[in-house]
Amino acid sequence: MSLISVKKSPITPLLTKSFSRRAVIMLLSVATLLLTGCGDEPNPPAKQVVEEQPSRFSKDKMAYRHKYHPEWPKEVRNEVYGDKETFSTPRILFKADIEWTGQTTLFSARMDLSDRRRIIPETAFNDKWMVGLHKPERSPDNRYIALSMDTTEHGFTRELWDTKTQQFIFMSKGYGYAHFNWTKDSENVIFYASGKHYNYHVPTKTLTERPIIYSNGLYLLPDGKTFLAHKKNEYWLHDFNGDVIEKVDLGFNNHLSMRSFKVSPFGDYIYFVSEGLGYPKNYWINLSDPSKRIIKPDKAGTFFFSDKKNKVLTRRFKDSTDLMGNGQTYLDYFFYEFDLNTQQTREIPIKESNIWGLMRVYIYGVFNIKDEQ
Fold it and tell me: How far is CA 24 from CA 15, 16, 45, 50, 217, in A?
């Protein structure tokens, strides 16, 4: 079973066009030889001016974006392991597919979605596909990414992508949501597979079974010692070995469940969208005092936590103030930032919108957060 849709290749018409051009050039060359005669040396050909051919993207209907931002690259940039400039700031992890390949893969970008870089090349997905609904988790040292995969050979698997060696590392078979967690030293990745709980030790490539913590989602908090387990309408805290520390009842009745559940990278809030009690709402609950909660109507998608403490973001769009050459507006994308302390909001323009045909961008979250800000 594949979650990836593959579009019809655009190569065939381009080959036909290229062949026709070559055929004309060859006929002209033969005619020139016949006219100059066999015994005479032909005049040197005039210097040819080669017109730069537009990239595949520049023919796309969204190519007007490059007219306004000529500095944006038309060739896809790749993320390079250990590059100091790339990892000098927090980055957003997201999935998308490059329009002319149709293959979903992972990208990273700065907090305004500029400097977009492909993490896994499409050619690496040979008889395997990323299960996009399972959130990938990057190791704290940024080298490895834990992923759920759907493979021809093993069925559903848990694997690591090594950004240094550019290879997949097989950890285990397994179905169901993985809910990956990394230890601070980037040596252990903890996950679910087929109803069991595992620890994979990266340096020794050793897989061991752990005491299971039942949950709808498991999150290792920043102290590296405490797990937060998402239940239907409450959460439990467990120590690292799985023993229960505390059960927190949020006071909801059994008709409510928590969708799109997330934990702040600073370990101070949980976020979810209510489901089952009237119109959905966004909830943020302070973990230091669960009675403190912020509620906001769910009008335009879900939020994710920013690299800034107490701030959350969601992606929105509006009609542009600039016009295209045909006088029509285009969609201008921005991040809507909400401050959990002050309740103030602001718009952050998103850069490099629609380059490489990345129309559908699904954001997983933020990584490479160096300091609390």
Answer: 14, 13, 16, 15, 63
Handedness of CA 98, 102, 108, 112 (dihedral sign): positive
Q: pLDDT digit string (tens) for 145-196?
A: 999 999 999 999 999 999 999 999 999 999 999 999 999 999 999 999 999 9
Strand 128-130 to 137-138 pairing: unpaired
And the tokens for 176? Answer: 């169901």
The HSE-up count of residue 214 (CA atoms within 13 Å, CB side) is 3
User: How does DSSP assign 73-93, residue by residue?
Assistant: -SSPPB--TT-TTGGGS-EEE
Residue 197: CB atoms within 10 A of its CB come to: 18
pTM above 0.70, yes or no: yes
Residues 6+ apart with CB under 8 A from 30: none
Instruction: State the sign of the Cα–Cα–Cα–Cα dihedral 289, 369, 306, 256.
Output: negative
Burial class (CB in 10 A: 0-12, 13-18, 19+), 356: buried
Torsion angles phi and psi, residue 209, rounded to 5: -85, 140
Helix and strand element counts for the chain (H, E)? 2, 25
